[in-house]
Design goal:
It contains 16 helices and four strands. It is an all-alpha fold and about 425 residues long. A two-stranded antiparallel ribbon has the order 1-2. Strands 3-4 form a two-stranded antiparallel ribbon. A hairpin with a 3-residue loop joins strand 3 and strand 4. The radius of gyration is 27 Å and the shape is elongated. The two termini are about 45 Å apart.
Length: about 425
Protein backbone atom coordinates (compact mmCIF):
# COMPACT_ATOMS: atom_id res chain seq x y z
CA UNK A 1 0.00 0.00 0.00
CA UNK A 2 1.49 3.34 -0.88
CA UNK A 3 -0.24 6.63 -1.27
CA UNK A 4 -3.81 5.90 -2.20
CA UNK A 5 -5.58 7.93 -4.87
CA UNK A 6 -7.43 11.08 -3.96
CA UNK A 7 -10.62 10.20 -2.04
CA UNK A 8 -14.12 11.32 -2.91
CA UNK A 9 -15.40 14.85 -2.26
CA UNK A 10 -17.14 13.90 0.99
CA UNK A 11 -13.93 12.55 2.46
CA UNK A 12 -11.84 15.47 1.22
CA UNK A 13 -14.35 17.91 2.69
CA UNK A 14 -14.04 16.23 6.07
CA UNK A 15 -10.26 15.89 6.00
CA UNK A 16 -9.85 18.43 8.82
CA UNK A 17 -7.62 20.70 6.77
CA UNK A 18 -5.07 17.91 6.30
CA UNK A 19 -1.76 19.09 4.86
CA UNK A 20 -2.82 22.74 4.88
CA UNK A 21 -0.48 24.81 2.77
CA UNK A 22 1.27 27.79 4.25
CA UNK A 23 -0.36 31.09 3.34
CA UNK A 24 1.56 34.28 2.96
CA UNK A 25 2.94 36.83 0.54
CA UNK A 26 5.54 35.93 -2.01
CA UNK A 27 9.01 35.30 -0.63
CA UNK A 28 10.46 38.49 -2.14
CA UNK A 29 7.75 40.65 -0.49
CA UNK A 30 8.00 39.05 2.96
CA UNK A 31 10.17 40.77 5.57
CA UNK A 32 12.69 38.54 7.35
CA UNK A 33 11.24 36.31 10.08
CA UNK A 34 12.63 33.92 12.64
CA UNK A 35 12.63 30.39 11.20
CA UNK A 36 10.98 29.02 14.32
CA UNK A 37 7.92 31.32 13.90
CA UNK A 38 6.89 31.27 10.22
CA UNK A 39 3.35 32.50 10.93
CA UNK A 40 4.29 35.69 12.80
CA UNK A 41 4.80 37.91 9.74
CA UNK A 42 1.48 36.90 8.22
CA UNK A 43 -0.36 37.46 11.52
CA UNK A 44 1.24 40.89 12.05
CA UNK A 45 0.02 42.03 8.65
CA UNK A 46 -3.54 41.57 9.90
CA UNK A 47 -2.76 42.96 13.35
CA UNK A 48 -1.01 46.32 12.79
CA UNK A 49 -1.91 47.45 16.32
CA UNK A 50 -0.03 44.46 17.79
CA UNK A 51 -3.04 43.52 19.97
CA UNK A 52 -2.46 39.80 19.71
CA UNK A 53 -5.85 39.27 18.04
CA UNK A 54 -7.29 39.48 14.54
CA UNK A 55 -10.94 39.48 13.66
CA UNK A 56 -12.48 36.44 12.05
CA UNK A 57 -13.43 38.77 9.19
CA UNK A 58 -9.78 39.57 8.52
CA UNK A 59 -8.96 35.89 8.69
CA UNK A 60 -11.71 35.21 6.13
CA UNK A 61 -10.39 37.99 3.88
CA UNK A 62 -6.90 36.55 4.12
CA UNK A 63 -8.15 33.14 3.05
CA UNK A 64 -10.17 34.55 0.16
CA UNK A 65 -7.21 36.60 -1.10
CA UNK A 66 -5.14 33.42 -1.29
CA UNK A 67 -7.93 31.12 -2.50
CA UNK A 68 -6.14 30.44 -5.79
CA UNK A 69 -3.29 28.80 -3.86
CA UNK A 70 -5.54 26.48 -1.88
CA UNK A 71 -7.40 23.34 -2.72
CA UNK A 72 -11.12 24.26 -2.74
CA UNK A 73 -11.93 21.74 0.00
CA UNK A 74 -9.16 23.08 2.23
CA UNK A 75 -10.38 26.63 1.70
CA UNK A 76 -13.95 25.67 2.60
CA UNK A 77 -12.84 23.95 5.79
CA UNK A 78 -10.74 26.95 6.84
CA UNK A 79 -13.64 29.31 6.18
CA UNK A 80 -15.77 27.13 8.44
CA UNK A 81 -13.04 27.35 11.06
CA UNK A 82 -13.11 31.15 10.87
CA UNK A 83 -16.88 31.11 11.43
CA UNK A 84 -16.50 28.88 14.47
CA UNK A 85 -15.03 31.69 16.57
CA UNK A 86 -18.23 33.14 17.90
CA UNK A 87 -16.46 35.98 19.76
CA UNK A 88 -15.29 37.33 16.41
CA UNK A 89 -11.61 37.25 17.35
CA UNK A 90 -8.77 34.82 16.76
CA UNK A 91 -5.70 34.98 18.99
CA UNK A 92 -2.23 34.30 17.66
CA UNK A 93 -2.01 30.78 19.12
CA UNK A 94 -5.38 29.81 17.63
CA UNK A 95 -4.20 31.23 14.31
CA UNK A 96 -1.07 29.07 14.42
CA UNK A 97 -3.09 26.02 15.44
CA UNK A 98 -5.51 26.48 12.55
CA UNK A 99 -2.90 27.20 9.91
CA UNK A 100 -0.43 24.53 11.01
CA UNK A 101 -3.13 21.89 11.48
CA UNK A 102 -2.33 21.32 15.18
CA UNK A 103 -5.02 19.18 16.79
CA UNK A 104 -5.69 21.40 19.81
CA UNK A 105 -9.05 21.47 21.59
CA UNK A 106 -9.97 24.70 19.80
CA UNK A 107 -9.03 23.15 16.48
CA UNK A 108 -11.15 20.05 17.17
CA UNK A 109 -14.11 22.21 18.15
CA UNK A 110 -13.76 24.21 14.97
CA UNK A 111 -13.53 21.03 12.91
CA UNK A 112 -16.81 19.84 14.42
CA UNK A 113 -18.56 22.98 13.20
CA UNK A 114 -16.80 22.77 9.87
CA UNK A 115 -17.99 19.18 9.39
CA UNK A 116 -21.58 20.12 10.22
CA UNK A 117 -21.47 22.88 7.64
CA UNK A 118 -19.58 21.04 4.93
CA UNK A 119 -20.58 17.43 4.94
CA UNK A 120 -22.79 14.92 6.67
CA UNK A 121 -21.76 11.95 4.56
CA UNK A 122 -19.92 9.26 6.51
CA UNK A 123 -16.67 7.72 5.31
CA UNK A 124 -18.41 4.34 5.23
CA UNK A 125 -20.68 5.62 2.43
CA UNK A 126 -17.84 6.47 0.05
CA UNK A 127 -18.03 4.49 -3.21
CA UNK A 128 -15.48 3.46 -5.79
CA UNK A 129 -12.63 2.72 -3.39
CA UNK A 130 -9.84 0.39 -4.37
CA UNK A 131 -8.61 -2.50 -2.22
CA UNK A 132 -5.99 -0.39 -0.42
CA UNK A 133 -8.51 2.33 0.42
CA UNK A 134 -11.02 -0.23 1.65
CA UNK A 135 -8.43 -1.77 3.96
CA UNK A 136 -7.49 1.63 5.42
CA UNK A 137 -11.17 2.49 5.89
CA UNK A 138 -11.77 -0.88 7.56
CA UNK A 139 -8.88 -0.31 9.99
CA UNK A 140 -10.25 3.16 10.80
CA UNK A 141 -13.67 1.75 11.70
CA UNK A 142 -12.10 -1.12 13.65
CA UNK A 143 -10.08 1.12 15.94
CA UNK A 144 -11.48 4.67 16.08
CA UNK A 145 -14.87 5.64 17.60
CA UNK A 146 -15.18 9.17 16.13
CA UNK A 147 -16.00 9.95 12.50
CA UNK A 148 -13.69 12.97 12.59
CA UNK A 149 -10.73 10.81 13.58
CA UNK A 150 -11.61 8.18 10.99
CA UNK A 151 -11.60 10.75 8.19
CA UNK A 152 -8.42 12.31 9.52
CA UNK A 153 -6.71 8.92 9.57
CA UNK A 154 -8.08 7.85 6.17
CA UNK A 155 -6.86 11.01 4.42
CA UNK A 156 -3.45 11.14 6.09
CA UNK A 157 -2.35 7.48 6.24
CA UNK A 158 0.32 6.56 3.68
CA UNK A 159 1.70 3.31 5.16
CA UNK A 160 5.03 5.08 5.67
CA UNK A 161 6.35 3.80 7.94
CA UNK A 162 4.56 0.44 7.82
CA UNK A 163 3.52 -1.38 11.03
CA UNK A 164 7.08 -2.64 11.51
CA UNK A 165 7.06 -3.13 15.29
CA UNK A 166 4.42 -5.85 15.54
CA UNK A 167 5.70 -7.61 12.42
CA UNK A 168 9.30 -7.52 13.70
CA UNK A 169 8.34 -8.74 17.17
CA UNK A 170 6.35 -11.62 15.62
CA UNK A 171 9.23 -12.62 13.36
CA UNK A 172 11.67 -12.48 16.28
CA UNK A 173 9.40 -14.74 18.30
CA UNK A 174 9.60 -17.27 15.50
CA UNK A 175 13.15 -16.55 14.51
CA UNK A 176 16.50 -15.95 16.24
CA UNK A 177 20.24 -16.26 15.56
CA UNK A 178 21.90 -19.24 17.15
CA UNK A 179 25.06 -21.29 16.84
CA UNK A 180 27.69 -20.46 14.23
CA UNK A 181 25.77 -17.79 12.40
CA UNK A 182 22.97 -20.14 11.49
CA UNK A 183 19.59 -18.48 11.33
CA UNK A 184 16.94 -20.97 12.35
CA UNK A 185 13.37 -20.90 13.57
CA UNK A 186 13.62 -20.96 17.37
CA UNK A 187 10.44 -22.88 17.85
CA UNK A 188 11.36 -25.47 15.25
CA UNK A 189 14.84 -25.66 16.73
CA UNK A 190 13.40 -26.47 20.14
CA UNK A 191 10.94 -28.90 18.64
CA UNK A 192 13.63 -30.87 16.84
CA UNK A 193 16.16 -30.76 19.67
CA UNK A 194 13.59 -31.80 22.27
CA UNK A 195 11.67 -34.09 19.88
CA UNK A 196 8.49 -32.40 21.12
CA UNK A 197 6.29 -29.67 19.55
CA UNK A 198 3.14 -29.70 21.70
CA UNK A 199 3.66 -28.74 25.37
CA UNK A 200 7.39 -28.34 24.88
CA UNK A 201 7.60 -26.84 28.36
CA UNK A 202 6.97 -30.25 29.93
CA UNK A 203 10.34 -31.45 28.66
CA UNK A 204 12.98 -31.58 31.45
CA UNK A 205 15.54 -29.66 29.34
CA UNK A 206 13.20 -26.88 28.20
CA UNK A 207 14.08 -24.31 30.89
CA UNK A 208 17.80 -24.55 30.17
CA UNK A 209 17.40 -21.91 27.47
CA UNK A 210 19.05 -18.57 28.33
CA UNK A 211 15.92 -16.59 27.33
CA UNK A 212 13.43 -18.04 29.83
CA UNK A 213 12.67 -16.16 33.05
CA UNK A 214 13.56 -18.42 35.98
CA UNK A 215 13.21 -17.28 39.63
CA UNK A 216 16.64 -18.64 40.53
CA UNK A 217 18.19 -16.57 37.73
CA UNK A 218 16.18 -13.38 38.24
CA UNK A 219 19.39 -11.32 38.67
CA UNK A 220 19.91 -11.74 34.91
CA UNK A 221 17.76 -8.73 34.05
CA UNK A 222 17.39 -9.51 30.34
CA UNK A 223 15.19 -12.49 31.19
CA UNK A 224 12.37 -10.11 32.24
CA UNK A 225 12.05 -9.25 28.53
CA UNK A 226 13.50 -12.15 26.54
CA UNK A 227 11.05 -14.70 27.93
CA UNK A 228 8.62 -13.57 25.21
CA UNK A 229 10.72 -15.43 22.62
CA UNK A 230 10.04 -18.81 24.24
CA UNK A 231 6.64 -20.52 24.19
CA UNK A 232 5.18 -23.49 25.99
CA UNK A 233 4.27 -25.25 22.76
CA UNK A 234 2.79 -24.81 19.31
CA UNK A 235 -0.66 -24.16 20.80
CA UNK A 236 0.78 -21.31 22.90
CA UNK A 237 2.76 -19.76 20.05
CA UNK A 238 -0.14 -20.04 17.60
CA UNK A 239 -2.71 -18.24 19.74
CA UNK A 240 -0.31 -15.45 20.68
CA UNK A 241 0.81 -14.83 17.11
CA UNK A 242 -2.77 -14.78 15.82
CA UNK A 243 -3.88 -12.29 18.48
CA UNK A 244 -0.97 -9.93 18.11
CA UNK A 245 -1.19 -9.86 14.31
CA UNK A 246 -4.98 -9.50 14.09
CA UNK A 247 -5.15 -6.87 16.83
CA UNK A 248 -1.65 -5.41 17.10
CA UNK A 249 -1.00 -4.65 13.41
CA UNK A 250 -4.22 -2.58 12.88
CA UNK A 251 -3.60 -0.74 16.15
CA UNK A 252 -0.05 0.11 15.07
CA UNK A 253 -1.29 1.29 11.66
CA UNK A 254 -3.46 3.85 13.49
CA UNK A 255 -1.50 4.75 16.61
CA UNK A 256 2.07 4.21 15.41
CA UNK A 257 4.95 2.03 16.57
CA UNK A 258 5.91 4.29 19.50
CA UNK A 259 2.56 4.11 21.27
CA UNK A 260 1.84 0.47 20.55
CA UNK A 261 5.41 -0.52 21.35
CA UNK A 262 5.12 1.32 24.67
CA UNK A 263 1.96 -0.59 25.64
CA UNK A 264 3.40 -3.92 24.46
CA UNK A 265 6.74 -3.61 26.28
CA UNK A 266 5.03 -2.27 29.41
CA UNK A 267 2.78 -5.34 29.39
CA UNK A 268 5.76 -7.66 28.93
CA UNK A 269 7.70 -6.13 31.85
CA UNK A 270 4.61 -5.99 34.06
CA UNK A 271 3.94 -9.66 33.31
CA UNK A 272 7.32 -10.96 34.45
CA UNK A 273 7.44 -8.61 37.46
CA UNK A 274 3.93 -9.68 38.50
CA UNK A 275 5.07 -13.31 38.45
CA UNK A 276 8.13 -12.46 40.54
CA UNK A 277 5.81 -10.90 43.16
CA UNK A 278 2.72 -13.14 43.11
CA UNK A 279 4.05 -16.52 41.94
CA UNK A 280 7.62 -16.40 43.18
CA UNK A 281 8.74 -19.95 42.46
CA UNK A 282 7.49 -20.21 38.87
CA UNK A 283 9.28 -19.51 35.58
CA UNK A 284 7.71 -17.52 32.72
CA UNK A 285 7.58 -18.04 28.95
CA UNK A 286 5.55 -16.57 26.11
CA UNK A 287 4.51 -13.12 24.84
CA UNK A 288 1.12 -13.18 26.55
CA UNK A 289 1.93 -10.16 28.76
CA UNK A 290 2.37 -7.87 25.76
CA UNK A 291 -0.39 -9.49 23.70
CA UNK A 292 -2.94 -9.27 26.49
CA UNK A 293 -2.03 -5.62 27.10
CA UNK A 294 -2.89 -4.74 23.49
CA UNK A 295 -6.00 -6.91 23.22
CA UNK A 296 -7.46 -5.81 26.57
CA UNK A 297 -6.83 -2.13 25.72
CA UNK A 298 -8.57 -2.58 22.37
CA UNK A 299 -11.56 -4.41 23.85
CA UNK A 300 -11.88 -1.87 26.67
CA UNK A 301 -11.81 0.94 24.11
CA UNK A 302 -14.60 -0.72 22.14
CA UNK A 303 -16.75 -1.20 25.25
CA UNK A 304 -16.21 2.38 26.45
CA UNK A 305 -17.10 3.78 23.01
CA UNK A 306 -19.68 1.18 22.04
CA UNK A 307 -22.12 3.54 20.35
CA UNK A 308 -19.38 5.20 18.31
CA UNK A 309 -17.68 2.02 17.12
CA UNK A 310 -19.16 1.30 13.70
CA UNK A 311 -17.11 -1.79 12.83
CA UNK A 312 -19.10 -4.62 11.32
CA UNK A 313 -19.76 -7.70 13.43
CA UNK A 314 -18.18 -6.07 16.50
CA UNK A 315 -19.98 -8.49 18.81
CA UNK A 316 -18.65 -11.44 16.84
CA UNK A 317 -15.14 -9.99 16.78
CA UNK A 318 -15.17 -9.36 20.51
CA UNK A 319 -16.47 -12.87 21.09
CA UNK A 320 -13.72 -14.45 18.99
CA UNK A 321 -11.03 -12.41 20.77
CA UNK A 322 -12.42 -13.31 24.20
CA UNK A 323 -12.66 -17.01 23.28
CA UNK A 324 -9.02 -17.04 22.08
CA UNK A 325 -7.86 -15.24 25.22
CA UNK A 326 -9.88 -17.55 27.45
CA UNK A 327 -8.52 -20.67 25.75
CA UNK A 328 -4.94 -19.46 26.06
CA UNK A 329 -5.41 -18.35 29.68
CA UNK A 330 -7.18 -21.61 30.58
CA UNK A 331 -4.31 -23.58 29.06
CA UNK A 332 -1.83 -21.56 31.14
CA UNK A 333 -3.77 -22.12 34.39
CA UNK A 334 -4.10 -25.87 33.72
CA UNK A 335 -0.40 -26.16 32.86
CA UNK A 336 0.68 -24.26 35.97
CA UNK A 337 -0.96 -26.83 38.25
CA UNK A 338 -0.14 -29.84 36.09
CA UNK A 339 2.44 -32.18 37.68
CA UNK A 340 5.87 -30.95 36.72
CA UNK A 341 8.23 -33.04 34.62
CA UNK A 342 11.18 -31.63 36.56
CA UNK A 343 10.20 -31.31 40.23
CA UNK A 344 10.54 -29.28 42.37
CA UNK A 345 10.33 -26.58 39.65
CA UNK A 346 6.69 -25.92 38.62
CA UNK A 347 5.49 -25.24 35.11
CA UNK A 348 5.38 -21.60 33.87
CA UNK A 349 3.07 -19.14 35.63
CA UNK A 350 -0.16 -17.68 34.25
CA UNK A 351 0.17 -14.43 36.28
CA UNK A 352 1.95 -12.70 33.37
CA UNK A 353 -1.39 -12.68 31.53
CA UNK A 354 -2.98 -10.74 34.39
CA UNK A 355 -0.13 -8.25 34.45
CA UNK A 356 -0.68 -7.60 30.75
CA UNK A 357 -4.41 -7.07 31.24
CA UNK A 358 -3.75 -4.58 34.05
CA UNK A 359 -1.47 -2.55 31.76
CA UNK A 360 -3.98 -2.72 28.90
CA UNK A 361 -6.95 -1.32 30.84
CA UNK A 362 -4.85 1.51 32.33
CA UNK A 363 -2.01 2.77 30.14
CA UNK A 364 -3.37 1.08 27.02
CA UNK A 365 -6.82 2.63 27.20
CA UNK A 366 -5.36 6.13 27.58
CA UNK A 367 -3.10 5.61 24.56
CA UNK A 368 -5.94 4.34 22.37
CA UNK A 369 -8.47 6.97 23.45
CA UNK A 370 -6.16 9.89 22.67
CA UNK A 371 -5.51 9.32 18.99
CA UNK A 372 -3.15 11.96 17.55
CA UNK A 373 -3.15 13.97 20.79
CA UNK A 374 -0.16 14.57 23.02
CA UNK A 375 -0.25 12.12 25.89
CA UNK A 376 1.91 14.49 27.94
CA UNK A 377 -1.06 16.84 28.18
CA UNK A 378 -3.39 14.21 29.61
CA UNK A 379 -3.66 14.12 33.41
CA UNK A 380 -4.94 10.53 33.40
CA UNK A 381 -1.86 9.50 31.45
CA UNK A 382 0.43 10.82 34.18
CA UNK A 383 -1.62 9.12 36.89
CA UNK A 384 -1.24 5.71 35.21
CA UNK A 385 2.44 6.31 34.45
CA UNK A 386 2.98 7.08 38.13
CA UNK A 387 1.10 3.93 39.14
CA UNK A 388 3.13 1.80 36.74
CA UNK A 389 6.40 3.34 37.92
CA UNK A 390 5.51 2.69 41.57
CA UNK A 391 4.68 -0.93 40.75
CA UNK A 392 7.98 -1.45 38.90
CA UNK A 393 9.99 0.07 41.76
CA UNK A 394 8.09 -2.02 44.29
CA UNK A 395 8.71 -5.19 42.27
CA UNK A 396 12.42 -4.41 41.91
CA UNK A 397 12.85 -3.97 45.68
CA UNK A 398 10.71 -7.06 46.25
CA UNK A 399 13.04 -9.09 44.06
CA UNK A 400 16.07 -7.76 45.93
CA UNK A 401 14.86 -8.25 49.50
CA UNK A 402 11.67 -10.35 49.75
CA UNK A 403 13.10 -13.67 48.60
CA UNK A 404 15.71 -13.55 51.38
CA UNK A 405 13.41 -12.17 54.07
CA UNK A 406 10.77 -14.81 53.38
CA UNK A 407 13.41 -17.53 53.37
CA UNK A 408 11.74 -18.92 50.28
CA UNK A 409 12.98 -22.22 48.92
CA UNK A 410 13.43 -21.76 45.19
CA UNK A 411 13.74 -24.55 42.64
CA UNK A 412 17.32 -25.26 41.56
CA UNK A 413 18.67 -23.58 38.45
CA UNK A 414 17.77 -25.44 35.25
Amino acid sequence: MGEHPSPGPAVAAGAEAERIEELGPEADERPPAAPEDPWKVLFDQCDPGNTGYISSGKFRSLLESHSSKLDPHKREVLLALADSHTDGQICYQDFVNLMSNKRSNSFRQAILQGNRRLCSKALLEEKGLNLSQRLIRHVAYETLPREIDRKWYYDSYTCCPPPWFMITITLLEARTRMGKGRSVALFLYNGVSLDQFVLQVTHPRYLQNALVYHPQLRAQAWRYLTYIFMHAGIEHLGLNVVLQLLVGVPLEMVHGATRIGLVYVAGVVAGSLAVSVADMTAPVVGSSGGVYALVSAHLANIVMNWSGMKCQFKLLRMGVALICMSMEFGRAVWLRFHPSAYPPCPHPSFVAHLGGVAVGITLGVVVLRNYEQRLQDQSLWWIFVAMYTIFVLFAVFWNIFAYTLLDLKLPPPP
